[in-house]
Amino acid sequence: VTIVLGNLLVVFTVTFDPYLHSPMYFFLANLSFIDLCLSTLTVPKMISDLHSGHKTISFQGCVIQIFVLHVLGGSEMVLLVAMALDRYVAICKPLHYLTVMSPQMCISLLSGSWAIGFIHSVAQLVFVGHLPFCGPNEIDSFYCDLPWFIRLACTDTYRMEFMVTANSGFISMGTFLLLLISYIFILVSVWKRSIRGGLSKAFSTLSAHITMVILFFGPCIFVYVWPFPTVSVMITPILNP
């Protein structure tokens, strides 16, 4: 309830308040929409299973959940990079902000994030689409994802796990490094200008964004080595509002 109401409040507030029609709030509303979709994809099913004790999902339902999960997750990663770009332009090039972050640029960045998320998800499923499943049918998680899904196959999955890990690791580490570089550029730019209180203001502006990035990317980067099934799916959508 907290996740749904909090993110819905952000979406409706930004949509209907003309004073919030700026690039920063445009990206924030779309981030809340993605978090809303992520939470409603997994949490209601988990609550229903815990309440009824009937913890099952069809094979087709599991595949659909994996596909949508990776579309949303990949899109959110790229959208976080777009938000970091927005903050970089706002802090380091304020006089050019409205020119650089035009409505066309914002829509292009948003469309690109969804396109990359879709391509990432399709690529993941292509890797595992031909696997034979004839044995175990239980996964140690409350939602379907590729690390557990692949282990149910009736064949050696070492190479497949490596390919899936490499794909997810590439988009996770790539976007995380872009975010890290953008933060460094912002802080160095503010420091070089020797603005009184500039660094503290920059940290204040970026602190919430950095916290969410760490909570989101930490599990994504290490999920194949040390599973964190609840962190990125539940905590990040709660903290976003």
From TrEMBL:
Write down the CDD domains for this protein, in alphabetical order: 7tmA_OR4-like (cd15226)
Q: How is this protein positioned relative to the membrane?
A: Multi-pass membrane protein
Membrane-spanning residues? 63-85, 106-127, 170-191, 203-226
Q: Which SUPFAM superfamilies match?
A: Family A G protein-coupled receptor-like (SSF81321)
Q: According to its UniProt record, where is this protein located? A: Membrane
Mention one GO molecular function.
G protein-coupled receptor activity
Query: What PROSITE patterns does the record point to?
Result: G_PROTEIN_RECEP_F1_1, G_PROTEIN_RECEP_F1_2
**One matching Pfam family, short form?**
7tm_1
Example of a GO cellular component annotation carried by this entry: plasma membrane
Q: Name the keywords, alphabetized.
A: Disulfide bond, G-protein coupled receptor, Membrane, Receptor, Transducer, Transmembrane, Transmembrane helix
Tell me the function of this protein.
Putative odorant or sperm cell receptor.
Family, according to the entry, reads as follows: Belongs to the G-protein coupled receptor 1 family.
Tell me what this protein is called: G-protein coupled receptors family 1 profile domain-containing protein
User: What species was this sequence derived from?
Assistant: Ailuropoda melanoleuca (Giant panda)
